[in-house]
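Write out this protein's structure.
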Amino acid sequence: MGMNSTAELLGRVLTDLDAVLSDNVLAGLSDAERITVLQAAGAAFRRVEAVVVETVATGDMGDFPHAAGCRGMNELLQRTLLVDARGATLVDRVVDRVRRPVSLAGERVPARWPEMRVALLDGVVGVAGFLAATGPIEKVWDRISVDQRLAADVALAGCARGHGVVFDDENDPDVEPDADGDVDGPSPTTQDLKALAEDLASMFDPDGEEPKDEDARRRRGSRSAG
């Protein structure tokens, strides 16, 4: 699909949204209809965020902003999306976690969070949900194993889709599909995702980061011994 086709598709979406916003269409809705509209708007909103993230993630991170006359990606996002610096930083943070860099062989390697990336592209989570789910694990990233990172990715993406997460005897998370098989359950809130991620981080890294004063004491001890 070329640029013209992509722009045309997005233009059609904008035209449809304009139609929804015109002639007091929303003013005449019942409460039940308003809930349906909010759910549909949320689904559209998350997909728009995914379009933004994937557009940036698949581009040349170095040349892309400069080609647009911007000093960096943050400025480019501020100017194109009309968001503040913080909003641009949040998008940029998600981009770092879903980007698939090109290897020396010319092939795209897996994303840092492959399953959560798919959940983002499917409109299951938006920028806020993605960061809430991945943030606690990112804090312990260097202190947990590759298998634990992958397990967290699968569990959190499954939770985002409304699947239950159960823990076996060894405290390993396992996604439990709904009784209907692949049917997604109720969507968790951003806070629900953050809570699960914090539980996983505590389980995988029970001792936490070594206290800074312990490091200082050790350094002083080594200097004394020297």
